[in-house]
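Running this now, will post back.
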Amino acid sequence: MTLPYQKLKEMILGASPMIVSSVGIREDQIQPASLDMTLGRRAYRVSSSILPRKNETIAELLEKYTLYSFELKEHTILEKNASYIIPLQESVELPDEIFAVASPKSSIGRVDVFVRLLVDATPQFDYVPRGYKGPIYIEVIPLSFVVSVSSGLSLNQLRFKTDESQQLSTIDLKLAHSQYGLVFDPYAHEPLPPHALNIHNNSLALTVDLKNRDIIGWRSKPSTVVIDLSQREALEAEQCWEPIYRQEREELILAPNSFYLLASVERIRVPIPYSCEMAAYDVSSGELRSHYAGFFDPGFGYGVDGSVPGATAVLEVRPHSVPFRITHGQVICKMIYEKLSEQPEKVYSQSAGSYYTDLGPKLSKHFKNAW
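Update: finished.
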């Protein structure tokens, strides 16, 4: 089960802390079911993406593959299609009962920055094994835009768990929908009837919306603008994006290696006892990547008291080597719900300063009037 806000605080503030930071952990880093991780003071430009063997540390690999290193000052530039390894300010001393998984922050996925977590002697991205004690690093690769970062900025989040899987089964999903309403009708402010749920392999399938609004999505465009990842509402959308308008045929041809922001038809909710993760629906197709930042905190589209009638999921889509046609209502991703170990004392809501609670393919918070 995923540990909620109050358990994370115990891991940070206890007599023998399990999570420590070189500069201290701020209250606003602790989310309903995750912890925002922050960049350290130095970055390493490496010649390739790296993943350690079971007998290797990241520091050893940096000695071999670093082209150059530099201090992270205010507004430090990271170039497109370059790989950087950055030590985080946080480190952990986990007991054998706890492991952790990572995912990018929503704002980072929406500007097409590829972020993956690394730890010593662990040949797996975005995973901190049980009992791990040591430093944490992230790999950062800007893909569509030049970006700037600073020490202390958060690009990813870490979730701490006590069981390998507490994924809701098909029957659990149906019961949870009956009790809370997991999926709302996109046209009426009410839950879908049970027979309309699209449940496949213990997950809720979501479909892409190509007709229900004038602007159905955004496509990144060549730009010399630097996106400062620490600044909010600093840029106009047209500096980096071109809108995609609804087409009569209700279809869209995705161009190879372009980056798109689209939205789901369905309005989803994550009730307080659960968290949720977006995953690719059919990885066997191999034609596109349907998301980068896939974690949804408890309260998303639900609010504090269940009064929010759902919110659309934004899809961060990157097709691969060939043009790929998608059509309105096509299944594009799946939502995997998990139980929390206990109800969190903090939830995701607009009143609590959460950004992505609206409808449609919203741009990241770095752009004016983007949400």
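The two ends are 32 Å apart (CA to CA). More later if anyone needs it.
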